[in-house]
Batch of 2 targets.
Target 1
Amino acid sequence: MELDFSLSPMEVKGLRSQFGDNVVHESLDFHVNGQEIVGLVGGSGSGKSVLMNTLLGLKEPDGGSVYYFGKDRDSLSSKDRQGLNNQMGVLFQGGALFSSMTVRENIMVPLREHTDLPISLMRELADMKIHMVGLPAHAATLHPADLSGGMRKRAGLARALALDPKLLFLDEPTAGLDPIGASAFDQLILDLREAMDLTVLMITHDLDSLYAICDRVAVLVDKHIAIADSLPKVMNHPHPWIKEYFGGPRSRAALKAGAS
Amino acid sequence: MNVLANTDSMSLDEFTLSVEGRVLRFVARGDWNLASIGKFHDRLESSLDGIDYDNVHYDFSDVGNMDTSGAYILAKAIRCSDDVCFPYQLTGNSRGQKVLMREAAEASMGRMPRETRQWYDTLVRVGESSERFFAEVYDTFAFLGHFMTVLFRQLLTPHTIRWKSVVAHIEDVGLNAAPIIMTLSFFIGAVIAYMGANLLASLGFQVFIVELIGISVLREFAVIITAILLAGRSDSAFTAQIGAMKMRQEIDAMQVIGLDPYETLVIPRAIACVISAPVLTFLAMISGIGGGLLVAWLGPTDISPILFFTRLQEIVGINHFWVGLSKAPVFALIIAIIGCRQGLAVTGSVESLGTRTTKSVVQAIFAVIAVDAIFAILFFEMGV
């Protein structure tokens, strides 16, 4: 299957998700443009994680459909779906590294599974990814348990990028990092986007990240995406929750810091 | 080996290498990505091996799709020594390709350490594991000591013992284990009877089957079956429960709030085990003898239940019953202590939870059988 990378990497049309009688998403429309960094915000329990699981194919939509590069996931054969999955990388919140393997082996897992390169070259490519995400060289032979939270996120990112995906999902990438580590991570995402033509969708509550690196911000509220636009426009949206979110003291402080 | 003289060139479908003076001209064509590089990366490396140059000019005009892996093997042409790399130039590249090449050149600069194996690694591992063994024994006894002090402190003030928790654990350790223990014991009793029946019948000593079943079940099998089942069932559960709590920092939270994990987690489990084990052993004795009786009655020995019970009462002394039963609380205590200790020894990783659970079961069964042997010697010397 050939994917046309000039088309929108991801488009959601009329998505509905529900658990029993509990409807989480109702006629949710959303799209992401190529080489764009989109931030997804929403209150706790608003269904951000459910949306991400649906986009990743971990959960089947209960209605509506999701298109990747113009293709409907439901209409694809399982082989094509896997090909599509190889174009997507995910950084889960805790890194989700395999704890029985070293960092290098973790990064080699997708390579082993989906390419037929010689092992030595895989190892070198894994080491290059380790370098690209800014981990020290000696981290390659460490196990996830020996890494700090920030290093674990970077290692998780290196594994997500192992197959050079076009589409990168980040689940709270800067949560639990100190401000220095968080802004370094933001810069890393910007650099990687430039180098690898990435399209990034990040769930985040880090207002600094939203101000610093997101091209657009999508707000998930009342079971659908109320607005997905540049930050100034989102901030002027009349919805009370959005007003409170961006009008609060934390937001104002972050805006100040972002402007200066 | 493709040794190039300084004006020759080396050409393949994917690339052309030519040398002009000290400059390597590297013309790349087609896709340089994960899907394609496997086909030619060997040939590229061996071609580069034979060339002498100190400057690289890349031409990417005809390059299609390029990703990090492609950039990485392209950058292999840039040789480095002592942090100084050959200069390189790009033509016909896109902006993204330039960034990729910069990243790739930097990555190949700081080559990564390899995991190397040494001839003495085996010795190191033997040394480490024996050190771990002694540390393990020491820690278990240290845990036992701590446990005992907390236990006696609580026994002096019984209202501080968490009885609700004790009862809940009795349900899990005792009540829920009863059916499986009785079933297993029934089969063990039947098997012993079968094994003995033929031999004794051929010798004409059928009636001795009652002693065989009575003594072996009462003295050993009932309590050992109970202990092994507890080790497999409850000991592993203790380790997994406490270990998972430890992983999620629940134990730390308890300590900060002022709850002693020994009082809240270890003592109730130990007491529950000590109370449950004799009851379970008693049930195991009954069903074990039941299994033996059935085989003795219906099998080749043909001993009626009435004869069986009369002989059991007259010949097999009550002391065998007490010997078996007296071991139960000791085994239970060993199992509870090992289970809880391994649970508290779990560290952050999922792997350690697995190894600790395995260790816990192995150590518990080992300790039970070792202590059983000590009991056997002890009772033999005492003449009971």
Target 2
Amino acid sequence: MASNFLRLRKPYYVESTINCSSSSDQKLVNLSFGINETRDQTKKRQAKEHHGRRSCLDSCCWVTGYLCTTWWLLLFLYHCCLPFTVGHEMPELMPAARLKREGLKGIHPVVLVPGIVTGGLELWEGKPCADGLFRKRLWGGGGFTQLLKRPLCWLEHLSLHNETGLDPPGIRVRPVPGLFGADYSAPGYFVWDVLVKNLAKIGYEGKNLHMAAYDWRLSFQNTEVRDRALSKLKSKIELMYRANGNKKVVVVPHSMGVAYFLHFLKWVETPPPMGGGGGQGWCAEHIKAIVNIGPSFLGVPKAVSNILSAEGKDVAYFRAMAPGVLDSGTLGLRALEHVMRVSRTWDSVVSLMPKGGETIWGNMDWSPEDEHVCDFSKKRYFRLSPSDNNVNNSDAKQVFRVKDPVKYGRIISFGKAASVLHSSQLPTAVLKEILHMNASRNFNSSCGEAWTEYDEMNRESIRKIGAVDKAYTATTLFDLLRFVAPKMMNRAEAHFSHGIADNLEDPKYNHYKYWSNPLEMKLPDAPNMEIYCSYGVGIPTERSYVYKLSPSNKCKHIPYQIDTSVDGEDGSCLKSGVYFADGDESVPVLSAGFMCAKGWKGRTRFNPSGINTYVREYQSKPPTSGIKSTTHVDIMGNIALIEDILRVAAGATGEEIGGDKIYSDMLRMSERINLRL
Amino acid sequence: MSFLRRRKGTDSSKSQNLRCNIVKEDEKNNLYESPRKESYNAKKWSCWDSCCWFIGFVCSVWWFLLFLYNTMPASIPQYVTEAITGPLTDPPGVKLRKEGLTVNHPVVFVPGIVTGGLELWEGHQCAEGLFRKRLWGGSFGELYKRPLCWAQHMSLDNETGLDPPGIRVRPVSGLVAADYFAAGYFVWAVLIANLAQIGYEEKTMYMAAYDWRLSFQNTEVRDQTLSRIKSNIELMVATNGGKKVVVIPHSMGVLYFLHFMKWVEAPPPMGGGGGSEWCAKHIKAVMNIGGPFLGVPKSVSGLFSVEARDIAIARTFAPGFLDKDVFGLQTFQHLMRMTRTWDSTMSMIPKGGETIWGGLDWSPEGLSFNCGAKTLRNNSINNTDQIPNINLANMKNVNYGRIISFGKDVAEAHSSKIERVDLLHGVYMIIVDQQDSMKADMLANLTNCDIWIEYHDIGDHRIKAVADYKVYTAGSILDLLHFVSPKLMARGGAHFSYGIADNLDDPKYQHYKYWSNPLEMKLPDAPDMEIYSMYGVGIPTERAYVYKVTTATDCSIPFQIDTSAEGGSEDSCLKGGVFSADGDETVPVLSAGLMAAKGWRGKTRFNPSGIPTYIREYSHAPPANLLEGRGTQSGAHVDIMGNFALIEDVIRVAAGATGKELGGDHVYSDIFKWAERINLQL
């Protein structure tokens, strides 16, 4: 080592002699060095030639070295001090530590069901451009570095087949199974980390804790067709049930995992080949409780803007994960177009579309959230406890009635006017007309290779849709989407349905496409099971959008975009083209809580056996990060939520942890919804 | 910024001359001293600056190279390799895909000892922040950072063989559990990659990861691992259209899977309750790789003194490192304390006693194994036929049967010439001198040794008695181990057995402790199943040891391999106190092949339904150069997992071929000759 060092030092000294000749008074130097032999003279002459390069390069090296050293020093200090600082926070971070002292012990096995985009994906077979990535992460963990290295290749491998919604030929990308070890989690990505840590504290480990990983890009039934994911989950639950002394499992789905698990509940009791053949009573026998976190039971409006234009204020699921990356020029200038192209091959996105149509989401002039107060800057929840909610809300109502109610029901409106005017003032529907025109659309568009389905559309009809002052509700929305993305909707509507069942006994509801829609399925016959809806409230959540035609009408451009110039006055719900309502930043309260608050409460036609439901809301408190945060993903680290989960896993019932806990207007909203039960 | 300003000032000032003078002087005197002298000149390019410069220079160069490396097309290393070694053959997966092979039977991997990763779920204070980090496998970073804490967490409870209180270390699950042991050190990864080439993926591959420190039955008691394997195999068969699984156990996994096959058909509560046809219904083939069916002599020296040429199970993986002072001066003792809490190490004590491993003057390999073969085979890989002819002349009988001998003379002398003092006599002496031994205990206390090795519980007399017995065969080894570490063997004896069954129908053989001993169990009733024994040959493998008593220092292990014992001639089997025989560097051929060659061949009492067995040997050829890494023709115990011929066999079977179609037996060693010499009732 030492000798190595010295050897490297040598060149430096040669160079530093060189430095001597750099002075302006060369003569003087020469004089003082006069006695030198000629060898030195030649050296100096050489040195002169090198003069300019030397100082620049050296100082560069110096600066780099200086920065590195400082950095390492700070890093070292940081590591030295870290244990102390963390030590102070630990007890607060770990509700489990406290509960363990209370004598709580994990009894029921726990199954975690991740949502969209939170599961890792790895490559099993790929094109030549993905050489050397075998069994490396494409999504999650280190996967996003591939996005930077070979963006187009990465996107190609994440796409699914345009028609089947399964693997494209020659590419196999598969979910990473199991509780992927902490070795693999990228900081801030592994959303389950805190929960898993807490569960481990009260005695959970591999044998009674399972992560039901599935490929979140596929439609739910296709995860079974391609990967046998549902069969695997069934076998795993049965095994854990048996291996832990016949203790029923507690299931904790998050976000889209909620819909996935609904699908599973129906699948498992349906006879093969369509179902898992567990028979009636499988759920009653194996499941104690389902603790839905941030459930998107009735869909999210975000999904609409995602499909229509791959944007939304903070939406585009991609961007949430790799912020800044997609907005910069990694993918050339057409980041959004690329995102759209890829995400439109994912059937699962369609499962997130608003369900229940106008009955749930409101029509042109009415919406269940009509009384919502938008002044999120004064988050009124702080000073309120659930008990005095009523009193204060009536005040709020008075204040509010001054203004016109926001027309949340119009999920997409073209132009601000369309979003505020009374419906009678809007032009009558022209979509049918356009559809008719489109039937004879000409394909000789000049765009060459079609990127998105927009390129296959008649530019004329695109403009027509956007030009008219037109608003779309949760029902008419589907006509619009079927028009702009016919292939995708064709494919996906074979797997998902978004309506409300008139008669649940109709045998058509045995088809799997209805299984993930809570309004078109019956809960299993399991009166002792419990269903929790746990979600954050008090954060502005996208609820409807104001759109405009995008300025450029060139090929390979998305023709619509959110009109970010549209703003309401202070305290308005409208900001940069988006109307906000109460929610957890991604899922509006309406979607998350309605089923537990009304649709399934008591014995209804959707819940014939009267499974107990509990609404557990968690209000956001500043600072809205860390352990008290209630945003869609961060809520997984919310200590109140974790405590609830731990208690349920340790055997508590919904009554014992306090029954319903509601801060939002959930109950009033659901009253206003006229759904036959 | 301030720096730059300073630089400018110095450059233009007259001090320039001064510096030049100094540098010149330096040049005249001594180039290496100059930095110090220069640092006198504080305003100049000081020592601190040159340090920065140096670091910056190194970093920049490093980054530049890294950048170049990353921008280099991935195919360049391959070009380079091909230029040097000639064109590479296709990996077997690619080759077989071209032949049209596709996924057929689901595949189950059963990793061996030490290759599976272990992670922390609950630990003591000192392991703060290591939640779900790998303690075993991966980078072994924690071993370096906090060795004592690490050893504490890796140990099991001394009495129960389960978790110590407050510590839960659990196996990593999934394929990641054992695909790589440490960074870049593949175990299953090559096989997995090749299987993926013909279409295998997560739903058709399953890694039956288990905690390899526990006794086999305890993995079920603590983690329900056996139930999990059963449920997973059932699931894979059900979801793949009723196609039976191909099981590929490696090393100790072989024994574990034997145990599983008995467990799954045994009725609950001891067994899995799968019924007597479970194996026939679910398993197509068991392809044992490097299986120590009858144990390995290495485990004896491991248990006896935590050494042997390369053993100490932990040492294999951090070679050179553990010999240094991580644990202070007591490396071995700490390792010994740790490994002795692992019941699984006892599953590999040689089984079958003298019948299999040879007596005092007899051993199956004794007459025909040629220890010089290794050097020869390296030079002429292709003409293995010649070897026996060349060297028959200078072969002499080696007493492999004496697994431990005290002194080289004893190892080579004829049994009639050895004077042995009976161990029982030794025990008697101890009872007589019990007071002495109590004194010895007190002495141990006085000298501040932790009493965690049982050696400190035993007195000098017992040590002397051990040495006086002089020679131990596979049968008396057990007595020896019982004698020197009674607690350990008492714990292990409840889970493992090492004998040969006289009557397999005896109801006592329904107990789980017999399930992993092929000589005390019947194979399941599954005539369509196939059993393969696949192992490397042509590497000298530890078979017997020459020991000596160490001059007693306070806290050391009283016995040591006598590394000074050499065989004399080049071809001798005795090197550094160890007698070698043919094998794969860890498992002798005898242990890996005998069951398939004789014990289970045809319809025997161990194999009542006549399950066909096949021996597939792979002759070892070391990698030709460094670029080949660990080689594609290796026969070494772990490296064989990258052997192309073996991988091809596995893939063919997974794609549906039978043993006959593979070509039946494929033997290089003298295993059949040795098997004949073993007098085992069938």
